[in-house]
Amino acid sequence: MNERPHNEANAVDLYVDGGMGPAERAAFERRMEADGALRAEVELQRRIDARVRAAMTPPASPAPGAGAGGPIPIRRGRIPAWVRVAAVIALAAVGAWAVAARPWSALMRPAPSALTADAVMKRMVEAEGFRPAWVCDTDERFSAYTKENLGVALVGRPEPGVELVGWSYAGGLLADSEKNAQVLMVKRGEEKILVVMGPRRDDRTVRLEVGSPLHVFRREYAGLVMYEITPLDHAVALESVRTQ
Amino acid sequence: MTATTGPTGATKGAPADARPDRLGPGEFARLYQEHRRLLWCAAAAVVGDRTLAQDVVQQAAVVGLERLGTFDPSTSFQAWMIQIVRNIGLNEGRKRARRRTAGADVGELDLGAAPAAGETGWSVLTGTGQVAAGTEPFDDELMRALGGLEETARGCLLLRVVLEMSYREISLALGVPEGTAASHVHRARGALRRALAASTAGGAS
Questions:
Q1: pTM of the complete model beyond 0.90
Q2: Cβ distance B158 to B45 under 8 Å?
């Protein structure tokens, strides 16, 4: 692409943004008809804008009554094949060592979570208004959502007086801070309760702050680990989900 | 304590036009939701990764709540929160750079570390995780070029292209003069066009 004068380059932006008046726009389009390079530049800018939007549009805003939900962004694998092969070999070696040396007895207790339950509850209730990102209003949607995000199709069966509000997600509780855990938002009366779920391999000991008014209850089920974070002194939501 | 209100809704004993000197958690929640997309873009401009941007915005919400007492409601909420987002994003970038140095994160790079030659500073991700056929090499080049922009220019560009904000709005959000915001966007777009045109020409030959 040849370097265009500054004003002309700005004109491309102005045209693409729809910022020209009718006369200016018509004149620019006449120039484009005669200048293939200019036309290509405009097309390139439109393509760039479209791809930037596709890659960098924020996730849907959490809102009450939001639909069953689009997919959560998924990382596209970009690890070269040789790295994967090396990783398999390394894992095999570590596995053999683990069988021989039995080091896991020291690792039975999961590492502590990066964030405290208090911080996550504070964010979801106070900062975000306890509004879910996804609401699954039928068993089919609930099942499809959990299958996609947890790998297990679950249905919601809350006890009387308990309401499954919807789903959100939080980093820093299970796995590491860069991986989001699914969070089922639950209400019993005015009490707001969170059930954090993830694969059992992502288990972390969910921490409470000193003097926290909250309680944490744990359940393992269907290959998942679940933590209920609640102001109540007993769990009311952990048994609210089950496989079909 | 129960506050009583008069017919106009003003609290008794306080001037009707008095501005609150502190922001309450409820109002914080409302403003946070109102600016969430903007904060996400600001985070993405710093860290260059969708998932990490989401984490940064979530962390910023917690930090913002904790520091609510330091916020002056007569000033710009979005500028205050963007500063928090930016600081957290830069910290996260540094953490990732350290992890990357240790070889722990093979597939991702961050803007806190200078990308090696031939590597992209940004991961290529779309909103759905799906990449349209034929767009991958173009996207790779695009993300590499985006990663090469100066952070403020990248922020201006994202707010303009993704959120379709006016230069005036970008100026208020990022605390740069309106003309500077426009210059950043024009220059950034020009740089991307040059990079992509060169890449397309190189790939075609």
A1: no
A2: yes
